[in-house]
Amino acid sequence: MLQPFIITLSLLPWFPAFLCRVTTEGEHAVMEGQPLTVPCHYGPQYAGYVKYWCRGKMREFCTSLARTDEPRSANQAEEKVSIFDDPVQLVFAVTMSNLKEGDSGWYMCGVEIGGAWSADDVAYTNIKVIHGMSVVNSRLIGEEGSSITVECHYSERYRESEKKWCRSGDWSSCLLTGSDGSYEDTSVAISDDRTRTLTITLKKLQMRDTGWYWCSAGQQQIAVHVLVTPRPTTAVSVTSTPTTSQSVAYLPPPKPITKESWNSHSHILESLLVCASIMLLVGMAILARKLWKQHKQDPVLRQVKEIQARHNEYSGDLQNSAVVFLNRDSQDVQMY
């Protein structure tokens, strides 16, 4: 029972090494001529240890490039490789500047343990230095009338190459930088810093500027999409103070027709229709009464009127006057 316990105690110092190892990203890709920073994380048991950065995949044949126990150069801008340890965050960072294509390969960040029976704790990463072009933002959005800026980066081998800004599908629209590395007109400004950055500024954007463009250096090119959005419209209210010769009339907006108002109006219409119908019936009754009275008049009177009419016609031939006696009882007419 005692022997397994002793073996367990002897393995305890190795547990942190397996649980809190040095770690970093397995691969990095960087444009030629640009810098690269690689963070290497470690466990708290390594806070006071020496950290290093070397090139190679085997510790025995790894070429040391930077160590935390070496004095730093007075001119840090000229340093090819620099290392900085932050024991509070438990990370040390390695920065490599002005990378060339020949700098591609395997690298190692490690913690120097020391001792005959203890190996250094290390992590490996593969760095690939590529040449070509890249863009900070391949999709840009700008408001109509405003300006946007495109930043295209190129590798060192294209420093002296011809730089262009073209609209995709129309090579006749290409704008080239001059001998001083610049070009400018009313809508576009191009500037080449002759190191690794080509800057294009599109000014006074219009809706027709929406589309795909090419940023190129030598035979390398990269696509950029520009989207122009409409300028927001603002409503302008103009107020004027009425003078004595002006009168301002306010007409309230018409009230909407609702179901209740329509019902009230329909009741009024029904009442008017009933009244009009009654008045029409009364008028027709009066007219019928008059016609009936005329039709029922005494037929004797009608005969008298007819006789008088005939008498008037022959009055010139008669010498004596005629007297008419009307006997109502017999309804006969006698003339003498």
From TrEMBL:
Entry-linked SUPFAM superfamilies: Immunoglobulin
Alphabetical list of Pfam families matching this protein: V-set (PF07686)
Stored CDD domains: IgV_pIgR_like (cd05716)
Residue ranges of every copy of the Ig-like domain listed in the record: 16-125, 144-239
Subcellular location: Membrane
Keywords: Membrane, Signal, Transmembrane, Transmembrane helix
Species for this entry: Sander lucioperca (Pike-perch)
InterPro entries per the UniProt record, alphabetical: CD300_family_receptors, Ig-like_dom, Ig-like_dom_sf, Ig-like_fold, Ig_sub, Ig_V-set
Any Gene Ontology CC annotation: plasma membrane
GO molecular function annotation: transmembrane signaling receptor activity
Protein name (database record): Polymeric immunoglobulin receptor
Sequence intervals crossing the membrane: 268-288
Signal peptide annotation: 1-24
